[in-house]
Design a protein that fits this description.
TIM Barrel, alpha/beta, Urease, subunit C, domain 1, 2 domains, 4-stranded parallel sheet, 9-stranded mixed sheet, hydrolase (chains A, B), homodimer, 40% helix, 446 residues, globular
Amino acid sequence: MLHPAKRGRVTLLTNARILTMDADMTEIERGWIRIDGDRITALGTGTPDDITGATDMGGDLVMPGMVNPHSHIAMTLFRGLGEDVDDRLFRYILPLERECVTADAVSTGARLATLELIRGGVTTVADMYYFEAEIGRAVADAGIRGVVGQTLGNFDAPDHDSFDQAFALTDALVDEFRNHPRVTPSIAPHAPYSTGPEIMARVARWAADNPGVPVQMHLGETDGENDWSREHGGTPVEITDRAGLLIPGLIAAHCLHVSDSDISLMAERGVGVAHNARANGKGGRGIAPVTEMRGAGIPVGISTDGPMSSNTLDLFSQFAPVSMFQKLRGHSRKPMPSRDVIRMASIEGAQVLGMADRIGSLEVGKQADLIRISLDDPRLQPVYDIYSTLVFAAGPSDIRATMVAGEWLMQDRQMITLETARIMSDARQVAHTFGAKIAEIDRRST
Amino acid sequence: MLHPAKRGRVTLLTNARILTMDADMTEIERGWIRIDGDRITALGTGTPDDITGATDMGGDLVMPGMVNPHSHIAMTLFRGLGEDVDDRLFRYILPLERECVTADAVSTGARLATLELIRGGVTTVADMYYFEAEIGRAVADAGIRGVVGQTLGNFDAPDHDSFDQAFALTDALVDEFRNHPRVTPSIAPHAPYSTGPEIMARVARWAADNPGVPVQMHLGETDGENDWSREHGGTPVEITDRAGLLIPGLIAAHCLHVSDSDISLMAERGVGVAHNARANGKGGRGIAPVTEMRGAGIPVGISTDGPMSSNTLDLFSQFAPVSMFQKLRGHSRKPMPSRDVIRMASIEGAQVLGMADRIGSLEVGKQADLIRISLDDPRLQPVYDIYSTLVFAAGPSDIRATMVAGEWLMQDRQMITLETARIMSDARQVAHTFGAKIAEIDRRST
């Protein structure tokens, strides 16, 4: 997996317009990047002294690969299902997950997702689902980077009947990926209401015993969660804190229903937030107080949630909603400028995942996770403000090449690590089974 | 312009997945469409008896070309300018329009726009701007369909110093395009507050004298407009009605600030609405009551506004906001289902423009304005609900071919009627001048 033979290989990219996303937001109008093995070892303006074996970027934009800090990637297979109905969780999702989600289906869905992620410029994804080892293997095989979290919940999960079993699955996941260079195993209690204070406390103890294994959880997402937490005498954030799980590095997804004092507490504890603008918007759930959370110093990344919630896994589809939602809340054009959106999609997302020392910006010493974006489409021209171009005009199809850890995963939109035709055919086959199941559900309920 | 030699030509499209968008929302899983000259003369399921000279659509989706009922297409040249600042109108737009917007610049911007429209699947656009004859010529040359409206306003307009002059420009526009098969001349009073009751009354009289020439106007868009209308003793809609301009077929753009009684009045008068979700969201202005307007029977189309307001001219970038905004308002997943979004983008947009007898659906006797969409990208698979796929996963790059009035304007993403390289190079040159002007404005104001 480490490709030891390739470790000494040097890749030199020249004639690139570079957004480094470093602390100074350094931009290089025409520059170059040198990559030794999996790391960036030099970058600069103009042309380097020695351009032996250089790859000319043709003036295209080169920026850090994007970070998607919350998803359920195998749910590509549920994309577009149960739209526009309020009872989708009980009507569609739970029956489908109980009856159709097998290790094989998860593997197929995750492999379809890795195609989409690479083609959409996402180089690191955080996932929480079932049969999570399958997700880890799909991520490993695709060549991208992932934080893969085994979900623990008190409902009929497709891969465990008890919390004990879920902890055992998590232990096995950690064992399998402990030393993987790109796949980070993780533990993912589903949500406060679906695990409860005791299990949250147990997860906190487990996390203390497993340093370096991130914890992911849905937090402050639904109205039902608010009702549950009121009965338990606090906000979801407060109850999580009392259980000892509001720990540094917690990856908290959604945080739609958080009060000002919740925000202060989250900032104090060192929690990171994965913001799911489209999923929250499509669910009619509301707009998260992203401006306030970031103002309090909480890192907030841009995530997609699962494709049953917001349909796609690239971040482009989230950008305009992320910006517009805060502008609508503030009744002004000023909140959430495009520069900030792109920071959230790169270095801030890396901070949420505790990986900002390795990824999220193009800097010497960091991993060579980068994307090449063509600005040639008429839809993108002219470019006065590159961040605005990326946020409000670009799309996944403008990604021309994707590199992770110094390896090209896509060039000129041709996949390198993945067999597109086989993955698509497998996915269509599973979707056919799911389609029959849905027809059955619809027949039963009419 | 009529290509008389081609009038007898027959085009037969086979092996297509067809969304007709007719009154019954008829869908054909595998079917064909016969086109004689500029019109659809037959369509059906399976394979036609005679397939001589047929073009195989390879199972791709074929649907009506989309209708964008409100834009300022020449403003492609301002795309991405003045983002994230509240005083953009006075700081950037007005000085730029006064000093930089010439007939040549309008022509260049409009030609860049037609590239983007064809590539994004928009076959009919309604525009209101200055030097509108240039827009009409660009639309005519590109082969798309347009409603081109000369703007009349009481501010320093780049092409007129008085309303008399603006009416004269409109008369000339009507003369030039009166008999054009695809370009419909139009009159476009800027807004109630920027024309005033007397000029609105004069436009109403002018419109009565020029039957078949549609009237376009911004209505109920800004907070400032509300302040103005309060001083005039009514809502913007009421003041427009009192001036006699709330006439059948009025194309009212935005309608963000409309009361329940305004909506009843608009429905009674037979007004159509162009909804600019992204422009309103990016401006932090609010969410239009689209659910209520449609509920009252008002046709509502999906439009982009100018590229300085929402950056792109294709409707895909509007779809998710259009749906999400209504779901957020309703605090439910149910409002604005994907089927309705696609209706608004096609037949309902055609109704807004008064063209539903000719375009907006694929039916025998209608104009052959259609688009071919590939569903092959991993991002679009699987497809359980084709409307959801279009609204929440597809993008302009999935458009494979575009036809207007029986003529292919793009095939396999290759432009047929337009010279991409020349248009792009012209646009870059003008953008360079604009960039220098902006730098000057920024220097002056610091």
